[in-house]
Amino acid sequence: MKTEPVDILELLKHNTPSSCWIVLHSHVYDVTDFIHEHPGGADLILRHAGGDATEDYEQYHAPELVDQILPVTACLGRVDPAKIPKQKPQLDQGTDGTNRKEGSQVPPLNSLINLDDFEQVAEKNLPVNAWAYYSSAAEDEITKDENRHVFRKVYLRPRILRDVGDIDTSTSILGYRCSLPVFVCPAAMAKLAHPDGECAIAAAAGHEGLIQVVSTSSSMPIHSVMKARIREDQPVFFQLYVLKNLERTKAMIRLAEEAGMKALWVTVDSPVIGKRERDERVKAAIQITDQAGSVRKGQEVQGIARTMSSVITPRLSWDDLKWIREMTSLPLVIKGIQTVEDAILAYQHGVTGIVLSNHGGRSQDTTQPPLLTLLEIRKHAPFLIGGKMEIYLDGGIRRGRDVIKALALGATAVGLGRPFLYSLCGYGELGVRRMVSILRDEVVTNMALAGVRQIQEITPDLVNASKLQRDLLSGARL
């Protein structure tokens, strides 16, 4: 990395898309060739062109990430940030004109007693743009709501007079032991909720015995997440978005392998970004101002989701699994299966596992809930249940009883995304651990009340899914 001084006046000249320099932690970088590959969109960089982008950068990324993304030649030297003229505005603003809601505060952690409590705290305390990004879903958000409500259509059938003095909630995912049949979904940009971001989740997952799936769009570098683990054998999986730039995609796979990640989860349900209207409405507060103070018209920042999605390829197909397999020997899981037909295709392509998921309702609105897809599989492809291909499910799980219902209908394990992000807000690692502890207690209580002592004892006769069966029978595909 160069340490030669860069003239301030020279820095100020490079403030256009055709020649864009920015300052990060006192170092000057030429990012001209990178701006249109930036997952957050070019505008987020261009508004700092010729100036200091450190403050905005630190909201989303770890300090060392820039040196992993940019080539060594991109660093041009050093400057004194105090001598750089201030740009305006510098921060994403919410509807009230501030980056964080006024009067925000978090209650004592022990006063939170269910997962919804963490969501309420996050809504009151997250910056407006972060809350919109985390909580929003596509269009009218019907699918997001139905993902959760569908669990109400499945009833438990408790067995009585069974010894439930000792409850064991442990199981395995892809052969790796975990304390609960629950994993951390690959939710992006955790640093929006807490400075430690995905690293705090990694530490909490280690203490609580869970497996974390790290997002392609993680706000913390892979090696930092791995370093945050509490033990060397703590398994972490990597979620992959296949990018338009295939060489960068391949580089991410190699990096995940080199870092010691144990499986590759390829997300396939978002070839294009869904219309997340609440997230999009946040864009209006930002415009780009150059060093002379002139506003560049028409440069409003899009919602976080849309700007991040601009680098994902819409051309991914089943054939692409071949070159992915040729690159890595890691177990391959397909995330985003929404029909029994595609579940069968995944099985025929020999993947290790699938995740029944509609992206938390964030891609296409009015798609069916994953629990209904699981019932489709039970009805039309029962040979997939309990076979070599593990079946996971995410979306709408907020109670321990939801976990049990999903497992009874054939899921190997379930994933949670938003609750992990919400639990970071105001609490960091301790918030995540508290949230997991609450969920574990609910799983234990509901297993005892249902008359089962081990995960293996959670079988289909434990539930009555007749209402879901009626939904399935009335579906257009039948």
Automatic annotation (TrEMBL):
Recorded GO CC terms: mitochondrial intermembrane space
Subcellular location: Mitochondrion intermembrane space
Domain Cytochrome b5 heme-binding positions: 3-80
Uppermost EC category: oxidoreductase
Annotated region (Disordered), positions in chain: 83-110
Pfam families on file: Cyt-b5, FMN_dh
PROSITE patterns recorded: CYTOCHROME_B5_1, CYTOCHROME_B5_2, FMN_HYDROXY_ACID_DH_2
Domain FMN hydroxy acid dehydrogenase: 107-468
InterPro entries assigned to the protein according to its UniProt record, in alphabetical order: Aldolase_TIM, Cyt_B5-like_heme/steroid-bd, Cyt_B5-like_heme/steroid_sf, Cyt_B5_heme-BS, FMN-dep_DH, FMN_HAD, L-MDH/L-LDH_FMN-bd
EC numbers for this chain: 1.1.2.3
Similarity comment: family membership: Belongs to the cytochrome b5 family.
Subunit structure: Homotetramer.
Protein name listed in UniProt: L-lactate dehydrogenase (cytochrome)
Organism from which the protein derives: Elaphomyces granulatus
